[in-house]
Amino acid sequence: MTKILLTGKNGQVGQELELLLTQVGEVVALGREELDLSNEEKIRDCIHHHQPNVIINAGAYTAVDKAESEESLAYAVNGNAPTVLAESAEQIGARLLHISTDYVFDGTKHKPYTETDDPNPLGVYGQSKLVGERGIQQHSSNYIILRTAWVYGAYGSGNFVKTMLRLGEEREELNVVSDQVGTPTWSNDIAKAIVGLILKLPASSVQEIYHFTNSGVASWYDFAIAIFEEAKVLHFPLKVHRVSPILTRDYPTPAKRPAYSVLSGEKISQVLGTRPPQWRISLREMLTQLSTQK
Fold first, then answer.
1. Which of 128, 75, 68 is nearest to 100 (CA)?
2. Candidates 61, 113, 125, 143; catalytic one
């Protein structure tokens, strides 16, 4: 039976994966308490102890703005840890599947980024994630790097959907950036894609980068409007009645973000044999799930 070691079990994607991976094999799921990804020695000891066939790294430092002032921690978790995981996986003949980000791109393109486009991250978060990608490519002969974007889900905290629902309950008016464009992506759909890749790709050596997001394009403003429209139908307690579009320059943040980070899903769709759901359909499904948890 396939033995899978999952890091980041308490994150948005990690919690979805822990539920779904049981259809693939035996799962050892670890959070920060069990495996501190900033500790290189503990990573090596953990892999040596569990001897998995597949390692899925869903753990990451994801505080984009905070990373600008916590550079060493961001690089330890996002850059060094994936490299150490790759080295350890290589020693025991395991496959490493690592989750990366659209923030490895600078957003100057005007059509979807493909897997062969050159990365050029704007901030520490994207730079640290790119170091992790390159460490994997350098040290592993059997890896999958899955880049995704604008992740939200019913589990975990701090995602855009939950933030908008909280603010929409507290305030009557909101301003949301309208000149950053990407694709909102449900963590459940990411987890399903990862399971699909594990089941579809041969167990022998694979060295691939894939892009996966939901289908379609939106700005953060579009996303916010959709969240409130769908949430009202589901009777979430909202008092917001006006959402105004603003420009990035009107909402300065410590980290620069790509203005356009839409990822092409053509490559992964060919492997999985299906296109990912449209982002608003997935948003509706996630909010329905969230409403039943209340």
1. 128
2. 125
